Amino acid sequence: MTTRTLVRGGLVVTAADETHADVLIEDGRIAALAAHDSDTAKGWSAGTVIDATGRYVVPGGVDAHTHMEMPFGGTYASDTFETGTRAAAWGGTTTIVDFAIQSRGQTLRQGLDAWFAKADGRCAVDYGFHMILSDVNEHSLAEMDLLVQEGVTSFKLFMAYPGVFYSDDGRILRAMQRAAGNGGLVMTHAENGIAIDVLVQQALAEGRTDPRVHGEVRRALLEAEATHRAIQLARVAGAPLYVVHVSAQEALAEIAAARDLGLPVYAETCPQYLFLSTDNLAEPDFEGAKYVCSTPLRPREHQEALWRGLRTDDLQVVSTDHCPFCFAGQKDLGRGDFSKIPNGMPGVENRMDLLHQGVVEGRITRRRWIDLACAAPARMFGLYPKKGTLAPGSDADLVVYDPHAEQVISAATHHMNVDYSAYEGRRVTGRVETVLSRGVPVIEGGAYVGRAGHGGYLPRGTGQYAH
User: Fold this and answer.
1) Element (H or E) spanning 121, and its range?
2) Per-residue pLDDT tens over the stretch 283-292
């Protein structure tokens, strides 16, 4: 029994094109697109017709950096795979790629299995996994090959957090060499964690304990230094590199210089670095703790450099690094000691709207919005063209988006399982109206109509990098 849905009358926006077209969906996939007034479109009929007149019709967002239920500093990220993927759908994101964690002394397989157990049967939208390597040894290096064959094709290594996730340069080089051979992509959290720890201890010894000090000790120069080092290690290994959550103009300059040499170096930034700053970290009465994440928020002047990097394609992707902790009971573990504040912020629900605000303000084009939020992450992480575009054969992950609706972002109305919004009171133009995941409605007319378990696991191919 074929199920058909017709999305009629909208402006279809992809990374490549903008066209007034109707979209025909059959059995969860895009069957065809045709100009509104064409004979082809006029001849289509379907059991369900969605009127998208005056709206954009865009691919579902791909958020390639989330941390649902992630353990950190003695607590856990407050969104489960169920609550987090539901919030993603509310924000027009229909695919997440989360991070499975190898614990020290365990195998990659044990870490991956633990994350499968958390996510299986609970997700509202489709999901994949990256693998965090915490313990690089002969066994875990061999396991990388097996994971790539199974569709876990990207591996994150930390240059930060000594004693937790940290890998030294030798371990990072060995993982990069392995990835160069098996087609995997190494992702780095690029901050000089050894030096940062010295600055943290010195600050605490001086009695500097407020949340704003988190940003002061995690110096932009130490992000830039680690970014430079990661790039050189990748060059030695002959491997591509993806730098996560770039926050500082100095780090971006290292990436731009590498790309100018023609190196396969890629990077993402996140909405918090585009819209928030150290002013937020300095908010009084410990409110700044809400904005503690790593890499940290930077002074406002870095924002313009990051927006420019998005326009010039020195930054290819905008992800959220969604890792929420409640202000009451989690963030306040760090009262009197900023180093004990759990690192992370909520954002999976806000990404598409905040980036659209960049369109409204003339910072990026509509097509660039879709490239950064949908197509580029899908290409980078082996999901394109199944995800990230609206083309015949693609999954019918589709968002009807009202570009004129105004909304005020607030914890009172968001759907993330966290007691504050990082963007509280911010007025934005543009709002998700309808969301389909593989042709099935998840958000409809301001209501959630999806279900836990609809979202399926996505084995991924190796990246299709467009330099």
Assistant:
1) none
2) 999 999 999 9
Paired residues of 5 in beta bridges: 25, 48
**Strand pairing partners for 166?**
158
Residues 345 and 358: their CA atoms lie apart, in Å, by 20
CB 345 within 8 A of CB 66: no
pTM listed for this prediction: 0.98
Name the DSSP letter for residue 210.
S
The H or E element containing residue 369 is helix 366-370
Strands 4-13 and 18-26: antiparallel
Structural tokens at position 411? 């914890």
What b/e readout covers 128-158, taking b as 16+ CB neighbours within 10 angstroms? bbbbbbbbbeeebbebbeebbeeebbbbbbb
Coil vs helix vs strand at 411: coil
**380: which 2 tokens?**
């980078």
Task: Outline where DSSP puts E strands in 38-90.
Answer: 48-51, 56-59, 61-66, 71-72, 75-76
Q: Are 314 and 255 in contact (CB under 8 A)?
A: yes
Residue 414, pLDDT > 50, answer yes
Residue 10 in tokens: 């909208």
Contact 370, 426 (CB under 8 A): no
Pairing status of strand 440-444 against strand 447-448: antiparallel
SS3 441: strand
288 half-sphere exposure, CB direction, 13 A CA radius: 26
